[in-house]
Amino acid sequence: MPFEAYKLYQEYEPNKYKTSTQKKAEGVLKEADEMKRAQGKETISGIEFQEAKELLGEDLIGPEEVEKTWGVRPEDVPEIPFSREELERAKEMGQMLLLRVDRTEDGKLMSLEAMFNIIQKRWDKEGKGKLLYTSDEYKNWKERTGADFGQKALRAGWTLVSRELLPQSTSKNYAQQTELIVVYLKDTVFKDMEIPEEYEEAFQEWEQVKQTDKNIQELLRNPDNPKYDWQQAAKELAELKITQLTRQSIQETIYDLALYYDKNGKRLLPNVYTWSNSRSTGGYLVDLGYFGAGGVDGNGWTPDFRYGHLGVLLSRRR
Predict the structure, then answer these.
(1) Exposed/middle/buried for 296, CB within 10 Å: 0-12, 13-18, 19+?
(2) Strand 60-61's sheet: what is its strand order?
(3) What is the enclosing helix (H) or strand (E) of 291?
(4) DSSP secondary structure letter of residue 134
(5) CA 14 remoteness from chain centre
(6) Separation of alpha carbons 163 and 275, rounded Å
(7) What is the residue extent of each domain of the chain?
(8) What is the DSSP letter of 284?
(9) How far apart are alpha carbons 136 and 131 in whole angstroms?
(10) Is the Cβ–Cβ distance between 149 and 113 less than 8 Å?
């Protein structure tokens, strides 16, 4: 099933109807904000950004890094939705706090096409290799993954992303991985902590699905030879609340991998794949990884597929 393209919105001119006094006030505020940035101070509300910086160090990738990699500095940086306790737990688990933006400097969607156009020429000049793997040995990357290059953007905001695959998530089908994610969140991520409401709802939905959905039951109970409608199962699994909360989309995976590599000079997922929450145009669940000098590789599989190098990165958002 093809990805649905985003609707186009009519352009407008937000500054056209402002008074000279409003424009002058905005200019003063902007100048003050720039002075604070120059002094090493941030103007992000919510949990203190400087406190998060001191806690996470290089594991916080924020507005400055986004600007260096993607050439855009968001005017309104969202509040960090995680508590200090959550960030401390995330640090223990080897996660990084990363800011995603969904628009380029000129206001276009931060799509795969936009990311490729922004970064590839510079990487070529700097000898950093390729963003997307397009070897002649395979079909075109776009065709293989079914990715919407121009119209689908990532979800903006702060997210906690693991640098390595979730322990014991390889050699499991998509449903088994989902069960593992739920158990890991309950027993490790939220241990002795209040579980956020959206995750409680996601857990309840998953328990209901396990009890009533025959496709999911087959994948969990008979993984070696499931008798099921794989296309329906792929759709159901991809749309689960827990999937949307904890797995990256194609666009988010590429964004995160490129941003981390551009900042640290180290490629994540160099010899493994992570299973995303995205489906190809043929309905297959897309995995991404093996990020080497030739770029990120991508494939599509049925939900029952299992492989020793295919796991899942935990990408937790609120």
Answers:
(1) buried
(2) 60-61, 95-100, 157-162, 315-317
(3) strand 285-292
(4) -
(5) 30
(6) 14
(7) 20-104+153-162, 111-152+165-313
(8) P
(9) 16
(10) yes
Rg for the chain, CA atoms, rounded = 21
Cα separation of 50 and 44, whole Å? Answer: 9
Per-residue confidence (pLDDT) for residue 75, from 0 to 100: 81
Tell me how far the alpha carbon of residue 281 is from its chain's centroid: 20
Q: How far apart are CA 317 and CA 154, in angstroms?
A: 12
Burial category of 134 from C-beta neighbours within 10 Å (exposed 0-12, middle 13-18, buried 19 and up): middle
User: What is the pLDDT at residue 50?
Assistant: 86
Whether residue 279 contacts residue 1, with contact meaning beta carbons closer than 8 Å, is answered with yes
Q: What span, in angstroms and rounded, lies between the C-alpha atoms of 109 and 113? A: 9
Which residues of the chain are modeled with pLDDT < 50? Answer: 1-26, 28-30, 32-33, 36-46, 136-139
Task: Tell me the residue type at 107.
Answer: G
